[in-house]
Amino acid sequence: MLSCRELSEQADAFLDKEMPFGKRMQVRLHMMMCSGCNRFVGQMRTTRNLITTEAKGKAAHTSDDTTDIDSILAEFDELKQSSGQNDPAAQTKDQ
Question: What is the secondary structure of 16-78 as a DSSP string?
Fold first, then answer.
């Protein structure tokens, strides 16, 4: 079984669907058994979605606005509070 450290190192490949089926199943199994890693991957997914959404919104404007990091972080904090999630670094255990 994957350790928490191995999962965290491979989370990007998992989210990008750049790993073989068997390895994806190992990640999914670990996440089913480890709430800290499940929360960590969920927060990574949320962060990526927020950044992608913000980048698409900014690209739609004709001005040369730079990405507003404060608004992205504020949205992330709101989602985090509404879902009751804590800091994954404090929750994740290394097996």
Answer: TT-S-HHHHHHHHHHHHH-HHHHHHHHHHHHHHHHHHHHHHHHHHSSS-PPP-HHHHHHHHHH
The single-letter code of the amino acid at 88 is P
Token pair, residue 33, equals: 């058994």
Q: What global pTM score does this model have?
A: 0.60
What phi and psi values does residue 73 have, to the nearest 5 degrees?
A: -65, -40
Residues 38-63: b if buried by 16+ CB within 10 A, e if exposed: bbbbebbebbeebeeebeeeeeeeee
Instruction: Return the residue matching tokens 């040369």.
Output: 64
Q: Cα–Cα–Cα angle for 81, 7, 48, nearest 5°?
A: 45
Instruction: List pLDDT tens digits, range 17-66.
Output: 999 999 999 999 999 999 999 999 999 999 999 988 887 776 665 444 55
Six-digit token pair at 38?
């499940």
